[in-house]
Amino acid sequence: MKFMETIKFMKTIKLNITTPMIQIFWWRFSLIVLLFSGVIGNAQPVSNPQQKYPGQSEIVTDYVEHYHIDVNKNNQLVISQDNHEESMIISDKGGFSAVESIVFSDLSPIKSYEAYTLNTINGRQKKTDVAHIADKKLDRQSVFDSDVKLKTFNYANLTSGSKKVLKYKIEFADPFLLHRFMFATGYVNEKRTLKISHPETVKIDYRLFNIDKNTLDISTESKKGVTTTTFKKENIPAMKGDGGSAGNMYETPHLHFWISEYKTKDQLVPVLGSVDKLYTYYHNFISKINQKESADLKAFTVDLTKNCTTNDEKMKTIFKWVQKNIKYVAFESGYEGFIPREADKVFERKFGDCKDMTSIITEMAKYVNVPNVNFTWIGTRELPYTYQQLPTPAVDNHMIATYIKDGKKIYLDATDANVPFGMPSGFIQGKEALIAQNSSYIIATVPEVDAQLNNITDVIDISLSEQKIIGKGVYAANGLAATQCRNVIGDNARHRKEYVFSLLEKGNNKFKLSDFTEKDFDNNEQPYTITYIFELDNYVVSSGDEMYVNLTLDKPFQNDAFEPTRSQTYDHEFLSNQSYRVSLKIPKGTEITYLPENASFSNDLIAFNFSYSKKDATIELNYNVQIKQTLIAPQQFALWNESLKKLKENYLETIIIKKNDKN
């Protein structure tokens, strides 16, 4: 079984996976009703809703977000958002949602709401209040304490033709933390509208993503000193999610807006709109922490690094200690989602989120005189933005430490408990990092780890016993490939054999893993290695005095062609090189009558080569498959599929073994 298939498989057997969770800074502020997500399809106007939207049980007939921005008597920004949502049930066969939800928090509280069902009876509309309203915590793994909640509404009397109506008002305590607006969702939308109203003293800017401005109805109206800008789109097809996608924001049409500045009687107050402004906002969160030295933490750090002779050794020791001893637990109440905790508190508790891990790493570095270890903001790979494109808190969702020595940057993400020192975690590769330098900053791009460093090797020796293959092998995963293995299995001994089996399975469904031994699972400085013995029954095909053997026992990516309906960018997560050596002992009394030709191929996305050789009584196949690009955009799907066709042609090759005539 190929490596990524194994990872997907392991996620289905309900392991207690210890993969680190990521602290999402701005997530709480995207208060979108939870039923929305996906990728774009098509629809044609027809009078009957069921005919117009085949396969849909529910459509959104009208959706409006209206922001009201003002400056109060204390020269502070006051911001609220009025939401109006209407959806229609168009099927009497079920499949629609009877529950709607609003996400809210202390920084964005709900001020009012109204929810009801509308049914047309005898030509008149009848209004029915919702059956039940409840508040509950938003349950997310590894979030220990959060003020983010759901207000849920259970609608009554829903049938084909019913309309669900939800109206509510939200206030924003922080003008830096406004929402993005989605022009498409998981439902068909007949109309979606964003309105932004503000006085002339407030300057608003915005940026569109994945949508042409000319496809929107944009208008501006000024009345009594208030300017209202309206963005409207109609007849929006439903979206669907594709497996392995890089993230919805890569293709979903959406808009981010921000307040650039506003005027008071005395001054012009800057808000957002540049990286300088964003960094000023962020720097306020870190400028007042760790001001007082912790005697206990300092003494511990000095003792921990007492045998280290270089700064690199000190940082490696500190990083590995934080990885193994500070448990990732997220706190998201109010500004706790933004402000790191004091390092001594993290040391005392032995848990914290990404900001807390950064806090203790940077402080421990100070205690042993390692300079230039810095707080760093970064977006994970599901966010496609750069800091220049979107200089607002929506651009990133994570924090790490960056150790800079002689111009070289080492990115330290302790939320991944198994990534080796000197290597970035997989989910920040290729992303811009905003690195604090006291009152200034650096923007740098985290490099992708080279495919050869994420090498997977499987060295196999096999022999034939009639139709059966008997073999032994040594499997080794390096770099981020090994990290992913370690993260998926964690300390879950219960499913360990299932995991190893899925990782090593090859040939056909008759694969039997007779025995295996693991090495260096807990040592992320070394490859994760498995030595194993296996049998593969009913694999050899015989015809008369000939045997046909396919030596490509592992066939990575053979089933990974993209469907014609796919529309979301695919993410391989990291570059990789998978290398295999299969050595077959030729049975006595036989000879090789056909050996496939060697082959090689390379393009921007993938490279592979196959090399067959014969030496004495052994046939050897060496082949490798390399992923050269992590993100595959929709316009590259055809190239990927054509590449896989060529790869699969080589997977089908067999050698022919014939019994000697004299036998």
From TrEMBL:
Residue stretches in coiled coil: none
Alphabetical list of Pfam families matching this protein: DUF3857 (PF12969), Transglut_core (PF01841)
Organism: Paenimyroides baculatum
The Transglutaminase-like domain, residue ranges: 299-371
Residue ranges constituting the DUF3857 domain according to the UniProt record: 89-239
Superkingdom of source: Bacteria
Protein name as it appears in the record: Transglutaminase domain-containing protein
